[in-house]
Design goal:
Elements (H helix, E strand, L loop, with lengths): L1 E2 L12 H12 L3 H5 L4 E4 L2 H6 L10 E5 L7 H12 L3 E4 L9 H6 L2 E2 L8 H16 L1
Parallel strand pairs: 1-2, 2-3, 3-4, 4-5
Amino acid sequence: MRFRSDDADDGGARGSSSAYLIDSSTMVFHWESLTGNGLAFISLGLQELLSAAALILPRSKTVVEIPSTVPCNAAVVLACQSLKTADYRLALSEWRGQEELRPLAAVVDYLRVKLPSLKESDLALTLAGLQEKKQR
């Protein structure tokens, strides 16, 4: 199951939709009734990542998805490493082998690739990044 609003790929400029989703899904619904035996991919923006908002989500059922528009800086990488230390799974969306996102790609468990929107020129970079991830 993938939870995401229309503004989830804005890098967290607004940030409120992810916070609302976390609040609604943890306070109103029994988590297993939403996910069953599956995982919930929850897209978090910059504000939610840096505030550790994901820590209230059940780690066994949650994959924290990081939009590729979130800046890849030391604070974001540290926040992601902290989530990994707390046993959360992470995904990086819109992976196209971007050099500037490689520090995040090294931390996450999943690299999400949108094949229909992938340009032929990005294919080699995308595959190289996936191979690096596979070897780790």
